[in-house]
Automatic annotation (TrEMBL):
It is an enzyme of class 2 (transferase). This is Uridine phosphorylase. Gene3D superfamilies: Nucleoside phosphorylase domain. It comes from the Bacteria. Keywords: Glycosyltransferase, Transferase. The gene is deoD. The keyword Nucleus does not apply. Residues 14-210 form the Nucleoside phosphorylase domain. It comes from Candidatus Chryseobacterium massiliense. InterPro entries: DeoD-type, Nucleoside_phosphorylase_d, Nucleoside_phosphorylase_sf.
Length: 236
């Protein structure tokens, strides 16, 4: 048990898929894993461990934003000996160059957040994916005939804001889309010497307000889930 996860030691696999939403973790466990067991439900943040193609893998939620993914990823890495976390999430595109359903493999996450600086003394505004899992995802995407574009992402603390203009940091680091967790995950993994990647599905085109509707989401996220599972078991 850790402060925020009630699984026993040994009940979480070396590789964890981490969606933001606990119900997405449940959906993945129930539809993609065999023998999935619920190992933690503290605060409704569900964690499951099961088998994918005979290999043990866990899936559990990060919640939203750096404070939340900061807590869960830190406890997974330090208390459960997790080696690799693959965040799977959605993002909003700042540009119509991206289309809804596009898959992105995050190369660098840029943020205005002070999370990495005050947590670990990491001063950089942009932190890269950590370890080899990003490359494994690229290779696996090719094998699966999927396009997962290597992209920089703006990791923001803010969902609702007054000014609709693209934030300066997104322009500075060439980020065509925004989400709210990758920077926190990469900062923890960098500090701890662990592996971390983020795969995103574009769910919103911010300038046109086009989006994937709630009832299309489950189906829309299937390629991302399968890519993360296939790459995840390769890293074991
Ligand atoms: N902003 C931040 N995070 C997001 C968005 C967004 O527009 N869409 C999906 N995740």
């Amino acid at each position: 048990m850790s402060i925020h996860i009630s699984a026993k030691k040994g009940e979480i696999a070396k590789v964890v898929l981490q969606p933001g939403d606990p119900l997405r973790a449940k959906y993945i466990a129930e539809n993609f894993l065999e023998d999935a067991k619920l190992v933690s439900q503290t605060r409704g943040i569900l964690y499951y461990t099961g088998l994918y193609k005979g290999k043990e893998i866990s899936v559990g939620a990060s919640g939203m934003g750096f404070p939340s993914i900061g807590i869960y990823s830190f406890e997974l890495f330090t208390e459960y000996d997790v080696e690799t976390i693959i965040r799977i999430g959605t993002c909003g595109a700042y540009t119509t160059d991206l289309k809804v359903y596009d898959l992105l493999n995050v190369e660098n996450a840029a943020s205005e957040s002070t999370y990495a600086k005050f947590a670990w003394g990491i001063e950089e505004e942009s932190i890269s994916h950590q370890g080899n899992i990003f490359n494994t995802i690229n290779e696996t995407a090719k094998e699966m005939s999927l396009t997962a574009k290597a992209t920089n992402i703006h990791s923001s603390d803010i969902f609702y804001r007054k000014d609709p203009a693209i934030p300066a940091i997104a322009t500075k680091y060439n980020c065509p889309a925004v989400e709210m967790e990758a920077f926190g995950l990469f900062a923890n993994a960098k500090h701890l010497g662990k592996n971390a990647a983020t795969i995103l599905t574009v769910s919103d085109i911010i300038p046109t307000h086009e989006n994937i509707s709630a009832d299309q989401r489950e189906k829309a996220l299937k390629p991302m889930i399968e890519l993360a599972l296939e790459a995840g078991i390769k890293s074991l």
